[in-house]
Amino acid sequence: MKLLIACIAVVTLAAEVELQKSYRQRRKNSVVKAFSDADIVPEVIATAPEQFLGAWYGENEINLGTDMFAGDGIELPTLEYDVEPGCFYTFMIFDKDVPCAKNPSWRSYLMGMWVNVVDMDLESSCEIATYVAPSPIPGTGPHTYIMLLYKQAEEIDATDENLTCLQNDRLMFCVEDFAANYSLCDPVAGNFYTSVFPMDGPNSKVA
Predict the structure, then answer these.
(1) I need a surface site. Which of 32, 64, 82, 140 has the fewest CB within 10 A?
(2) Phi and psi at residue 129, in whole multiples of 5°?
(3) Which CATH number do you get for residue 25?
(4) Distances, alpha carbon 30 to alpha carbons 70, 80, 141, 194, in Å
(5) What is the pTM for the complete model shown?
(6) Cα–Cα distance for residue pair 150/187, rounded to 1 Å
(7) Is residue 205 part of a domain?
């Protein structure tokens, strides 16, 4: 009887493991597809993150293209991701549609950045660029706000002048250049949402 119970437990555990693998694969496929469908890849980054970055603004969950009222994004988002113990991460959020999606000549606007993130706790991380809430300009249509998480090879010197200047030099921020400068590989996780100025309807004129 004990042997039978042990066999059943092993089979059940194996089935749960397979289900988890299947779920992770489906989630990976959905993240990659969503980033491609939204033209984030290849317009902003060359390779989509494979994993989903959990993100909430209060009770508002962000899920790969959620349409959110800009006023709900005043506070810092809450993040969730299974980090590797002992590793540092870089988290950034930015608006890719500056001044608008049809003419993003000032792409991108850095809304916030943190380096040396541990356990997804932004409050205790090194804040490089103070968080700025989403603020789509009237008449510019929908904006896409992107959240990316990078795994660092080592701890980053937060006093580096090339980093500290980002507090003020936020416009025309190039994600790929930043990643290359700090030896960051492809983003490990990501998410994004859209927001539009409340008075911009479907028939509004976009600059």
Answers:
(1) 82
(2) -130, 115
(3) 3.90.280.10
(4) 25, 17, 25, 17
(5) 0.84
(6) 5
(7) no
